[in-house]
Amino acid sequence: MDDHASTPWQALARGRYLRSAWPWRAAGYLAGGALTGPPLLLGLVLLAAVGVIAFPLLALLGLAGLPTGAVERRRLRIVDADPAPTPHRTPAEPGPLAWARLRYREQATWRELAYAVLHGFVLWWVDLAAVAALLGLPLLLLTTPLQLALAADGEVKVLKLWLVTSQPGALAFAAAGAVLLPVLLHPLGALAGARAALTRALLAPRERELRARLAEVTRSRARLVAAFESERRRIERDLHDGAQQRLVALTMALGLARLDAPPGPLADRLATAHAEAGRVLAELRELIHGIHPQVLTDYGLTGALADIAERSAVPVATDLSAALPRLPESVEAAAYFGVCEALANVGRHSGAGRAALTARHTGEALLIDVSDDGRGGADPATGSGLTGLADRVAVLDGTLTITSPPGGPTVLSLEIPCPVSP
Amino acid sequence: MPGEPLKIVLAEDGVLLREGLVGLLTRFGHEVAAAVGDADALRTAVAAHDPDIVVTDVRMPPGFGDEGLRAAVELRTARPALPVLVLSQYVQRSYAADLLDSGDGSGVGYLLKDRVGHVEQFLDAVVTVAGGGTVVDPEVVRQLLRRRRDPLAALTPREREVLGLVAEGRSNGSIARELVVSEAAVGKHIGNILGKLDLPPAEDTHRRVLAVLAYLRG
């Protein structure tokens, strides 16, 4: 209906403006401005008057722009397909005091106040005048015959200027209205576009505010990952210091009991229990290793990657000739689990006979390649492990690339920026 | 238990396990001169007691990283002949390799803690290491043998099995009993292994262990 234009200006530029809903949206927007203006003006004046008497209340005037901004941003949707989100941040702490403190410090609050004052004292008059002149006037002309028919005294004074007493005369005015209406709808649309642009400029978040918010989101995601990582390490330590120690003590006690027990059914049962405890211990060891490999903490990536390569079911040729520097924990963990996942996939799906692992640090970034000679066709979209891995790397601003044409070879590349001072 | 009573310094931060180990070792006639809970105390205890062997955990306070292993490596650097048996929760070459690289590679052991439960095997290892032998946990050896590196690929499955048992510090007689073959057959296997790994054959048991060490260090 509106040719996918998202503002009246775009609609005007693309033609077909008159046949779309845009003229009516523009008129609706301006009329809305004329309606919201008076109560706003009244509110501002009252608030200022009360503030003069009860001085502390004047502080409230500073926040008067907030509801205005909220209403106006919503109203903006009439003529602007792009949503205008709130430019305000959410306070870090609960409570009205923290909220107020943040609001008074935000530039957006003061822009909203400026808008409220501007709208209350000036803009709504402009809106009203525009709607009256550009829409009201031609509509009034168009309805002249009707006005004449309804007039009790048989005459109508059009625009208080011209006296019309006959229907042909009235029809002439109606014809003029019919010509004027489409002509005047154009400046109406242009004005509504200008009003919307002004509103957006003052009430929508600035780029800096958006960037700040994005940075905050990125930081909180990184914090989440770090918290997740430290939780893993806590679980690992708890298992290591608790369950594992007790199990070792248990196998030791069972081992001693076996030495003391005379040959017979008791010794056999002790042997069974001993073997079972040993298996539990081995399983627990693998589990703990999967949660957080201690070798990563103690030896860094170089040692840990050599270790993964050794555990791999498919033989892995490693090129770790240039020892990697110690990197931030989150980078080392992401790289480690990345290679684990990659080699696990090689073992499970690729049908490869050999794999190769290279890792190096350029001074700016960590680069890791895992390749295999398998059948290829790996699709990162289908592997939840790979998706999780990509997410994990993305948190660190890194990238995960997989090339895997049918028939192979599959190459998984990890690049994580992490500058290291020499 | 064969052999003389040994004077042992023990380092393990888990109280339960430490007490258990002390009980186990004293029960079999050894003297635990000191049982400590962290790496610094270990260094002090070794200086004070001049033990026949040090038995230590890898992970210890204050950092709960590889302090115990580092302390062991340091002790052996200062006194290369000091026998050290390290107990670990991890099947990891890096730890074993660091340890075996310390000193001249004799009188060291790297065992998984699980092995403590196999009381006789554990006591054997203590005695072997104290006597200048080298003991590597079978799990670690198994992982190494899985690597299918070229020299090892030349070994037959039986030869790998023998190499694994050699790495545990077992004697020819013990290996023969384990595999139910004659001692002569074991000797022949070991000769073949040393040949394939390009190590000159010798009767010296320490030389045999080099076969495994070569791979741990690789």
Automatic annotation (TrEMBL), chain A:
Transmembrane annotation, as ranges: 40-66, 113-141, 161-185
Keywords, sorted A to Z: ATP-binding, Kinase, Membrane, Nucleotide-binding, Phosphoprotein, Transferase, Transmembrane, Transmembrane helix, Two-component regulatory system
Reaction equations catalysed: ATP + protein L-histidine = ADP + protein N-phospho-L-histidine
Domain Putative sensor, chain residue ranges per copy: 29-203
Signal transduction histidine kinase subgroup 3 dimerisation and phosphoacceptor domain residues: 231-296
E.C. number: 2.7.13.3
Protein name per UniProt: histidine kinase
Automatic annotation (TrEMBL), chain B:
Family matches, as InterPro entries: CheY-like_superfamily, NreC/VraR/RcsB-like_REC, Sig_transdc_resp-reg_receiver, Tscrpt_reg_LuxR_C, WalR-like, WH-like_DNA-bd_sf
Presence of keyword Phosphoprotein: yes
Pfam families recorded: GerE, Response_reg
Chain ranges of the HTH luxR-type domain: 148-218
Sites of 4-aspartylphosphate modification: 57
Domain Response regulatory: 7-128
Keywords, in A-Z order: DNA-binding, Phosphoprotein, Transcription, Transcription regulation
Protein name: Response regulator transcription factor
Native source species: Streptomyces erythrochromogenes
Phylogenetic lineage: Bacteria, Bacillati, Actinomycetota, Actinomycetes, Kitasatosporales
